């Protein structure tokens, strides 16, 4: 088990407070903590985006979910330029109105691949409180702390109870140490390369994509929620199975061989969050628009937060991104 993210939610744009929390995070030396993060609140309408970057200190060890705009905000077009100033910056766009889908599809189409990995579209009623970036925002009333966990390997070994219980102890420990309100854990089951969520699904229901996969994801979600309830752990944010293509070696293999295609993946999102997460898809404005429309319909029926990260590509079959390596494009039909 690793703490995938130790995240502090800072509820205002006070530079001295942000500096203080970055300093405190830098002081923490714990091999179980993979990433340290700070999330800022939804971006005020009167705050220029370039002013936000002036509030953030340079820190090699801390990343920032710093920009959170509604889909009808005219500043959306400026997000890409701001994110080019630092690889530590992340941003989200809240898509709550169908009529904004065309503009957001055009915006995704315009993105360079690396920048696209740091921008997510959230389909929901409001901004989301989660340690998972880019969508994680400090949409709360007081400075707080929460964590997410990397435990796919432990799940396969039957150690899920131990992992979540231990992670919760970490969260409580560091919330006391930092004197922050403890929110709980986003208990989402997420992969990182060899620690594959796809392997877990296939163990339950057969190779991706096959009939029964969706029910397997549903079973996993129900299981982790029941365990959290038994352990008296507070689940926050997404708290569902995650299938980011570029972060799971088996998912990438299934995409490469053609057994997992875009329609299959979108079907799985009925049971898992961010099913269209970190997915390389050839540049096509109309396709992106229709993906957003279908995702809005799925979210409306799920009544759960739904995140999307599309990586625009050239249609050459693969794309290379430094932090992820070679990623196959998903076939759309």
Task: Give the key terms.
333 residues; alpha/beta; Anaerobic Ribonucleotide-triphosphate Reductase Large Chain; two-stranded antiparallel sheet; 12 helices; 20% strand; DUF711 family protein
- Number-wise, the strands total 11
Number of domains: 1
Number of helices: 12
Overall 3D form = globular
Alpha-carbon Rg, integer: 19 Å
Largest sheet report: 9 strands, mixed
Distance between the termini: 37 Å
Indicate the percent of residues in helices.
Answer: 25-40%
Strand order of the largest sheet: 7-6-1-2-3-4-5-9-8
* CATH topology term: Anaerobic Ribonucleotide-triphosphate Reductase Large Chain
Secondary structure class reads alpha/beta
CATH architecture name: Alpha-Beta Barrel
Polypeptide structure, described:
- With 333 residues, the protein is an alpha/beta fold.
- It has twelve helices and eleven strands.
- Strand 10 and strand 11 (325-328) form a beta hairpin.
- Helix 4 (101-110) crosses helix 12.
- The chain has one domain (2-328): Anaerobic Ribonucleotide-triphosphate Reductase Large Chain.
- The strands form two sheets. It has a nine-stranded mixed sheet with strand order 7-6-1-2-3-4-5-9-8.
- It is globular.
- Helices cover 37% and strands 20% of the residues.
Short account of what is shown:
With 333 residues, this protein is α/β, with parallel strands linked by helices. The chain has twelve helices and eleven strands.
What topology does this entry show?
Blueprint: E1 2-9, H1 15-27, E2 36-39, H2 49-55, E3 62-70, H3 79-83, E4 89-94, H4 101-110, H5 113-116, E5 119-123, E6 144-150, H6 152-156, H7 160-178, E7 181-186, H8 197-205, H9 213-230, H10 249-257, H11 262-268, E8 276-282, H12 285-302, E9 306-313, E10 318-321, E11 325-328
Parallel strand pairs: 1-2, 2-3, 3-4, 4-5, 6-7, 8-9
Antiparallel strand pairs: 1-6, 5-9, 10-11
Helix pairs in contact: 4-12, 8-9
Protein name: DUF711 family protein
Pfam family, one: DUF711
InterPro entries: UCP027893, UPF0210
């Amino acid at each position: 088990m690793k703490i995938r993210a130790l995240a502090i939610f800072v509820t205002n744009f006070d530079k001295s407070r942000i500096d203080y929390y970055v300093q405190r995070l830098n002081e923490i030396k714990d091999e179980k903590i993979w990433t340290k993060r700070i999330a800022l609140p939804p971006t005020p309408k009167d705050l220029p985006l370039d002013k936000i970057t002036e509030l953030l200190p340079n820190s090699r060890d801390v990343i920032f979910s710093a920009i959170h705009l509604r889909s009808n905000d005219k500043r959306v077009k400026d997000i890409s330029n701001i994110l080019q100033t630092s690889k530590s910056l992340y941003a989200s766009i809240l898509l709550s109105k169908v009529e904004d889908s065309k503009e957001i599809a055009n915006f995704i189409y315009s993105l360079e691949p690396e920048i696209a990995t740091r921008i997510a579209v959230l389909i929901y009623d409001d901004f989301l409180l989660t340690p998972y970036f880019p969508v994680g925002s400090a949409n709360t009333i007081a400075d707080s702390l929460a964590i997410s966990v990397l435990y796919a390997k432990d799940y396969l070994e039957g150690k899920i109870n131990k992992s979540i219980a231990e992670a919760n102890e970490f969260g409580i420990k560091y919330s006391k140490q930092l004197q922050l309100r403890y929110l709980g854990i986003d208990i989402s089951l997420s992969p990182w390369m060899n620690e594959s969520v796809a392997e877990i699904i296939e163990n339950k229901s057969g190779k991706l994509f096959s009939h029964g996969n969706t029910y397997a994801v549903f079973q996993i979600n129900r299981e982790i929620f029941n365990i959290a309830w038994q352990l008296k752990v507070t689940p926050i944010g997404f708290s569902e199975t995650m299938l980011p293509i570029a972060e799971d070696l088996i998912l990438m293999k299934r995409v490469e061989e053609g057994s997992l295609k875009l329609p299959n993946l979108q079907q799985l999102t009925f049971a898992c969050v961010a099913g269209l997460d970190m997915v390389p898809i050839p540049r096509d404005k109309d396709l992106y628009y229709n993906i957003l429309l279908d995702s809005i319909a799925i979210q409306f029926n799920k009544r759960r937060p739904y995140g999307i990260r599309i990586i625009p590509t050239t249609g050459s079959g693969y794309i290379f991104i430094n932090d992820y390596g070679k990623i196959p494009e998903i076939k759309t039909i």
